[in-house]
Write a structure and sequence with these properties.
It is built from eight helices and 14 strands. The protein has about 350 residues and is of the alpha+beta class. Helix 3 links the parallel strand 5 (about 100-110) and strand 6 (about 135-145).
């Protein structure tokens, strides 16, 4: 039985004068923080906020560079841990720019009193994930904070990769008529983490989908298709990813609700807790915008890859309602798929 006593709303008002949990949720509050406080604060030294990975020119090469922090609680969950999650998440941010990932860094903030055995499990998971992804962990840092001033292990990873000439994948390239594809079922990571928290059992085990996706992206590029946009729908789920793309490219997105792949275990958990599965995090899925005449070849390549066997087309990029995502229901109506404001599930990545 779930004990709701002591729960607090993770979606506070957006006009708060202080940092709140929702600012880290990957939704509208996160976007506001980055665009209206962080980026302006950087001044001329800052970049843009329209994607998770920067592509820069250096020594004649096109390098992709990204960084991410992981504060997931609990640190171990069905299908993974904070260790492989950090490696795969950074690899995937590079992959969404069409890059071949090469090198990662890892910085640990450890709470005093954390069992060394737990830290050993995390680093072993990182090593195994890096080996499987074909990347190397080449540098890092470690800091310790006092007992009660942290939450076990916080982990920050950065990554560098190389982008081939001619590959231009970014949100602004979404174009009216594009097919919207997804690589597999949705919401498993968020529900897997939630299932481990005290008192939350759903009668079935939902495992995280955490996985490295650069091989899948390479297979998609090998078709010769012009991939306009790739995005891994992590914090804020598919809803946040599609709304960000629609807003950046000033296009509309229309989904077919019956084609959205939400597994039964995720649907049941979300129904029980009143959550929207389209706003639940994924860590081994991607969404792609491709030319409609190339969608069939791309889907075939995705389905032939181990991490894309469940790939399907879920919608279309349209001229109407620019900046908005809608879903066409089985009854022929439409409903708006809104941008999450804060965070449905705190501390899921």
């Amino acid at each position: 039985m779930i004990d709701f006593e002591g729960w607090s709303c993770p979606v506070p008002l957006r006009d708060t004068p202080n940092v709140v949990a929702g600012h880290g949720g990957g939704g509208a509050m996160s976007a506001d923080l980055v665009r209206h406080l962080l980026i302006p604060g950087y001044g001329d030294a800052g970049g843009t906020a329209d994607r998770d990975c920067a592509v820069v020119e250096a020594g004649g090469a096109r390098l992709a560079f990204t960084t991410d922090a992981y504060v997931v609680q609990p640190m171990f969950f069905p299908g993974g841990s904070i260790g492989d999650l950090a490696v795969n998440g950074t690899v995937n941010d590079l992959a969404m720019a069409g890059a071949t990932p090469l090198y990662l860094s890892a910085a640990f903030i450890l709470e005093e009193g954390t069992p060394l055995a737990d830290l050993g499990r995390i680093t072993a998971a990182m090593g195994a994930a890096a080996t499987a992804a074909g990347v190397r962990l080449v540098t890092g840092d470690t800091k310790v904070v006092g007992n009660g001033n942290g939450d076990g292990v916080y982990l920050t990873t950065s990554g560098v990769g190389v982008v081939a000439d001619g590959v231009e994948i970014e949100p602004r390239r979404a174009t009216v008529g594009d097919a919207v594809l997804v690589s597999g079922d949705l919401g498993r990571h968020g529900v897997a983490v939630l299932s481990c928290r005290e008192g939350l059992e759903f009668g079935t085990t939902v495992a995280s989908d955490t996985a490295p996706l650069h091989g899948l992206v390479a297979a998609m590029l090998a078709t010769g298709a012009d991939l306009h946009v790739l995005r891994d729908p992590t914090r804020g789920g598919l809803a946040a990813a599609l709304n960000e793309i629609a807003a950046t490219a000033r296009v509309g997105v229309e989904l077919t609700e019956r084609d959205l792949p939400v597994p039964d275990g995720v649907a049941d958990a979300c129904h029980l807790l009143g959550l929207d599965p389209l706003q639940v995090a994924n860590e081994g899925r991607l969404v792609a915008f491709v030319r409609p005449d190339q969608a069939g070849d791309v889907l075939a390549a995705m389905r032939a890859h181990p991490y894309g066997t469940g790939a399907r087309r879920i919608g279309t990029c349209v001229a109407g309602h620019p900046g908005m995502v809608v879903a066409r229901t089985a009854l022929g109506g439409t409903r708006v798929i809104s941008m999450p404001i804060g965070e449905q599930l705190p501390r899921i990545c």
